[in-house]
Amino acid sequence: MKLGGDEGRVHSRTIYVGQKSCPPNEAFIPPKFCDNRIVSSKYTVWNFLPKNLFEQFRRIANFYFLIIFLVQVRNNL
């Protein structure tokens, strides 16, 4: 059973991806591509403490409890 439009189609083909012919007297040097790594981490080793402190103390409640803690520690000395 033939479907309409199949008469002119070629049923097999060969596709070469990334194949580049190189002259025999030259060495093939593969092209350098840009780094496509995705970094989705919020912190690194170097910025963990500053960013974490900023994230914690930008909330007013956390800053309030820090002040209460410091007052209590000072009174106990």
Q: What's the end-to-end separation, in Å?
A: 95 Å
Estimate the mean pLDDT confidence: 78
SSE pattern, N- to C-terminal: HH
What share of residues is helical?
A: 25-40%
Catalogue the unreliable spans: none
Largest sheet: none
Count of separate DSSP helical elements? 2
Radius of gyration: 32 Å
How big a fraction of the residues is strand? under 5%
State the total count of DSSP E strands. 0
Structural category: mainly alpha
Principal-axes shape call: elongated
Report on the architecture of this protein:
The protein is mainly alpha-helical and 77 residues long. It is 35% helix and 0% strand. The protein is elongated.
What's the short story on this structure?
The chain is mainly alpha-helical and 77 residues long.
How are the elements arranged and paired?
Blueprint: H1 48-57, H2 60-76
